[in-house]
Specification:
- This protein has 322 residues and is mainly α.
- The longest helix has 24 residues.
- The protein is globular, with a radius of gyration of 28 Å.
- The N terminus is likely disordered.
Length: 322
Amino acid sequence: MAQIRGTAGYNLGSSQNRFGASAGYSNMKTEATNDPSPLEAIRAQTSKIEDWLDTLSEPIKPYVYLTAAAEAYDGYLPMIGRFLIVVTFLEDAVRIVTQWNDQLLYLHDYRHFPRGANHLFLAVNVIAMLICSTMVILRKHSNEAVAGLLGVVITQALGYGLIFDLNFFLRNLSVMGGLLMVLSDSWVRKKFAPAGLPQIDEKDRKMYLQLAGRVLLIFLFVGFVFAGDWSVSRIVVSGLGFVACVMVVVGFKAKFSAVMLVLILSVFNVIVNNFWTLHEHHPQKDFAKYDFFQILSIVGGLLLLVNMGPGQYSIDEKKKVY
């Protein structure tokens, strides 16, 4: 290295050698420029995958148009999403009130609640669900409302002894994901950061909430895969749902994937959980009604995802940066 630098410094050697060295350096520079970096290679592969997905989505373009239509109704979508998220809590409150004696008997005889404690447990749950659900719909005190509903989910799981029921557990994780989307939506719409709290911290919390909400929302499909008997239609729906869930989690074409899940869940809900067709005293009527409204809550969370987008921690947002 010292010899090359010394020769160049004193202009020693023939001009042919100098020009030869310069040409060689230029060739090396050109080769280095043409050699793609790992980042460029990743971008190229990502573009190929995106083109492939666009080709596959050609037969189902109505989903894309539906996404555009949903975005056009930006003012109504959050309100509908919030209502659907809390509708399972409203239905649960009505069910407890209309079946008050049966609920008391179950808690006392099967869950061994002392007399009086079962009354208090039901009353607190009903009041919390009604007040917190109303605040979520009206977008008032969203932090406290979401915390109250999360508390209801946890206390009911413990009180009714369903915490070790896998299907119940996964469904309620999805409901929690919808509640986190409500919280994230309320922070996104704030005009200013709370006093004493740096704005960058508020932004970071929104991003983490959107990520957690996206991940939790898809747990319903995990429960769907493990529950029930297998059939050709079930395999097809599970496959489509699995692809859409993965895309939602990583934030790749997240709005498109969320619309797909909304449509799949809505059709599935009407066909499978059609409690209105069951006799009043049918043993599965209450279970079908419970499942129906829980899926509506998860659909509400997905509608908020369509409205807000996946957030900063997603492939969709990273593509905008690069």
